Amino acid sequence: MKLWSRIRSALRNPFRKRQLEEKLEEEVQTYAEMLIDERISAGMPASEARRTALAEIGGIEQVKQAVRDQRAGRDVGLLWQNLRFALRQLWRKPGFTWTAITTLALSIGANSAIFSVVNALMLKKLPYTHPERMGTICSRVTGANASEARIHINGEQWEKLRDDVPAMTSAVFASTSGVNLRSGSSVQYVEDGRVSARYLEVLGLRPILGRNFSDDEDRPHGPKAAILSYRLWRSIIAGDRSILGQPILLKGEPYTVVGVLAQDARTPIDAGVYTALQPSREGEGAGTVFEVITRLRDGATWQQADAEINRAWSFDHQSSLRTNPGATITYYSVPLQRGEAGPLRPQVMALMLSAGLLLLIACANLAGLTLVRSLSRTAEVATRLALGASRWQIQKQFWTENLLLALLGGALSVGVASVALGGLLRLLPEHFLPVMDVRLDGRVLAFTLMVSLLTSILFGMLPALVTRRVDLRSSMASRSVTGVGSQSLRQALIAGEIALTVVLLAASGLLLRTLIHLETLPPGFNPNGVLIAKASLDDVRFSDPAVFRKLMDQSTASMRQIPGVRNAAVGLSVPYEPTLSNWVTLSDGKEAGRRDGTDEIYVTPGYFDALQMNLIRGRVFADSDGPNAQHVAVVNQAFARKFYAGADPVGRAIDKDTRIVGEVGDVSVHSGMYAGAPLMTEQAIYIPAAQASAPLLAMVHMWFQPDWIVRTTGPIAGLTAEIERALADAAPSLPISGFYSMDDLLARTLTTQRIEVALLSSMAGLALLLSALGIFALVANMVTERTREISIRMALGSTVGQAMTQIGGAGAIPAATGLLLGLVLSTGALRAMRSVLYGIEVYDISTILMVVLTLVLVTVIATALPTLRIAAIDPAKALRDE
Questions:
Q1: DSSP string, 821-836
Q2: 518 and 371 in contact (C-beta within 8 Å)?
Q3: Cα distance between residue 192 and residue 273, in whole Å
Q4: Which residues contact 718 (CB under 8 A, 6 or more apart)?
Q5: Residue 621 DSSP symbol
Q6: How far apart are CA 873 and CA 880, in angstroms?
């Protein structure tokens, strides 16, 4: 009970100070009077009795102070007193206070916003039961072509994984694709997630209505089944519970609805409807197109599972060794969260590092500002020391002010982080992040608090150390505010700020130059005046090549009749998009029988004219290149260079009976064959759409939505309704999934690069602003504190220009030092960016010159503005005022 009583007193006493002081005064006076009365009763004179009584107790005020020192809640009271004093001090200097709070809010807010993404990607547990037992599979290849990455598997690997790895429950899935769903009289375009039977079981998800897929439904040619997401069930099916067990028309054929997911159910692919994948070794299963997720069974270990995987896939080791002699390949499991976040991890951590550099710049800036403010209070400190305050008490007061600033800045940073995070999420395209729940949660707020406390230490440390050296006598006698030592310290801080700013500017400059390079690559076609319409042909209605050809012919013919349309065509893909990767076999010449990879695109006659691609040799396709004619192909220059050393490919044979009839120029595509730049030229074969086989159409339409290409003679605005009507005339109930200009497709391909440039440029710009503020504050402070010296120099004959040059040099020197130091730091730091730079070198001269010129311009402005005040100084008036 004594402890609880003391705690209550500690909490209550700071708010009962007046009552406690009155009671203390009464008790001490009563005790003193009691001692005096005892002495008077003993015959001592009253004056002597009072003197000896006070001498015995040690003085009234001393006793009262000793009681205060032992009183419960004393530290709380002192803290409250320091906080009130700190608030008064900050209120007296609103310019400094708002500058400091704004600087902290922006820098801490940027860190909190980026940390929110880091938290969601890497720290927060996935929203599934026992996420620590969920994983995916990676491979480690050694040898000449060493690599380590998450893998996709083929149908044979899937069967071995499913049947021969008992330590895990496994599932595979394919990337989402757009399909057509009929609801009543309308047809909706929805995202279809094709998953194996155990997919939802591995995720630990159970439908709120119905069941998961059965093994029979997941076998090749098994029953057609679908599971609806909650949002699709509510929006399209209107929440009809009787839909369970009923067929819906999906992809043009009936699928039985076997389940509905819960409202909060989230999957890595987050589709609108899920259908059974029915994986096999044939068709798409012949290639490595399936992604894997696993869940460790009870009692099993990851080491056991990895051993079973490597035994089951030993056949694949041998095939890999044939293409990479001397190599070894090992498969191993990684946590699902790590596998999902892996592709974005380098970029996110780079942004987190950049935000950390911004925070250091802000702390250095504030350290300089608080240093000047602390030294301007030297006389106050000296006076308090003379009145008996200890140096520790004064230090605590300064730390309290810094802590209060940091907490106020941290509180405001929550709003900044919320706005910044909202802007970041709006900047990201749908499904860009593999997680859905990116928000300011408790962990992010704890991070914000921790960073706020850290900043109070960082920017308050140097001023606190400097004020510890205040000399009482000299400070009381001197009129100067700061000394040479403090000026040198501030210049060192500014040099450090500039150095870190140079690194951020150089990094953002390189990314900007990369983006400009990619956006200005020769496209190989004319992107102006082109409108693209997409629609899903993953539909049983168009699986017959004859029906497919009729759709192509009728839809393009109708679109050519639209006023303002010059030409219309269809292609499996267009420039700037991913393309189908396939195999080609040379059928003649010295390398007959050579088999290699190439892009393959089916196109209708008019495709090359609609895109205005260059014809190098031969001819393009005509209406006569039908299904019963000689199979023909057009190749691009990259194909001719790779397979024929740049010689004329026209007339050569590929894939046994296909003749090359033309060669066209290269176009920029989103690479699907090689790990490299987001835009590049690849070897490509174009085949007539009329000669595409049924198996090829069925396979590619699961992965790609064909493009209807419309070349206009005028603005493309206002044509969408006409194009929709033209397509509806050819194929009723075939919805268009979206309209795009070529600029839209280019922007979508370069999304990652644009986001990197936007975020890093924002932080570099903020860092530059803080550095400029630091230089401005340094020079402005020097003008203020050296006004007397400047007046004397001018009175003795110095010119205004000489004075401005001398004072401005105090800002220019640390800026130049920081610039040189930053360039040295950049030589090491920028090497890590080599993998994200395309078309430019790490040490790009143009970028370095731009950084130097930017810093020089900012330094000139930041030093010139405050030194202009020197021209307004009247030496006589200034000396009279002194």
A1: HHHHHHHHHGGGGGGG
A2: no
A3: 5
A4: none
A5: -
A6: 12
Please tell me the number of Cα atoms within 13 Å of 73 on its side-chain side.
18
Helices (H) and strands (E) in the chain, counts: 29, 25
As a whole number of angstroms, the distance between CA 226 and CA 203 comes to 17
| Upper half-sphere CA count for residue 803 (Cβ side, 13 Å) | 26
Percent of the chain that is helix, strand, coil (3-state, to 5): 55, 15, 25
**Nearest-angstrom CA–CA distance, 750 and 519:** 8
DSSP characters for 733-753? T--EEEEEEHHHHHHHHTHHH
The per-residue pLDDT for 466 is 59
Task: Please tell me the distance from the alpha carbon of residue 537 to that of residue 705, in angstroms, as a whole number.
Answer: 7
Asked if residues 514 and 679 have their Cβ atoms less than 8 Å apart, the reply is: no
Selection from 788, 835, 783, 784 nearest residue 810 by Cα: 783
- Give the Cα-Cα-Cα angle 571, 572, 578 (nearest 5 degrees): 120
From 55-64, 275-284, 386-395, 472-481, the region with the lowest mean pLDDT: 472-481
| Token couple for 568 | 């219309």
Place of tokens 């197109």: 289
Q: In 3D, which of 422, 390, 292, 358 has the Cα closest to residue 105?
A: 358
pLDDT in tens, 595-626: 998 999 999 999 999 999 999 999 999 999 99
Give the count of beta carbons closer than 10 Å to the beta carbon of residue 327: 17
348 vs 537, residue with greater confidence: 537
Sequential DSSP letters for 162-186: HHH-TTEEEEEE---EEEEEEETTE
Question: In sequence order, which residues have a C-beta less than 8 Å from that of residue 463 and are 6 or more positions away?
Answer: 367, 370, 371, 373, 374, 375, 398, 402
Matching residue, tokens 């499904």: 431
- How far apart CA 119 and CA 130 sit, in angstroms, is 18
CA 114, CA 421: separation in Å to the nearest integer?
Answer: 8
Phi, psi of 786 (to 5 degrees): -110, 20
Calculate the alpha carbon distances from 266 to 115, 415, 437, 581, 587 in Å: 22, 28, 10, 31, 49
Q: Examine the pLDDT at 481 and tell me if it is beyond 50.
A: no
Taking alpha carbons only, the member of 876, 849, 868 closest to residue 779 is: 868
Q: State mean pLDDT over 536-563.
A: 94
Beta bridge pairs of residue 149: 139
End-to-end CA distance of the chain: 64
Sequential DSSP letters for 94-160: HHHHHHHHHHHHHHHHHHHHHHHHHIIIIISPPSSSSGGGEEEEEEEEESTT-EEEE--B-HHHHHH
What is the b/e burial string over 67-104, where b = at least 16 CB atoms within 10 angstroms of the residue's CB? eeeeebbeeebeeeebeeebeebbeeeeebbebbbebb
Does residue 665 contact residue 638 with C-beta atoms inside 8 Å? no
**DSSP codes joined into one string, 259-280:** EE--TT---SS--SEEEE----
Q: Over the stretch 34-50, which tens digit does the pLDDT of each residue have?
A: 877 777 877 788 777 77
Q: What is the DSSP string of 272-331?
A: SEEEE----SSGGGGSS-BEEEEEEPTT--HHHHHHHHHHHTHHHHHHHHHHSTT-EEEE
CB count within 10 Å of CB 350 equals 18
**Torsion 361-365-366-371 (CA) sign:** positive
27: amino acid identity, one letter: E
Beta bridge partners of 370: none
pTM over 0.85: no
Q: Residue 438 to residues 22, 48, 264: CA-CA distances in angstroms? A: 56, 79, 15
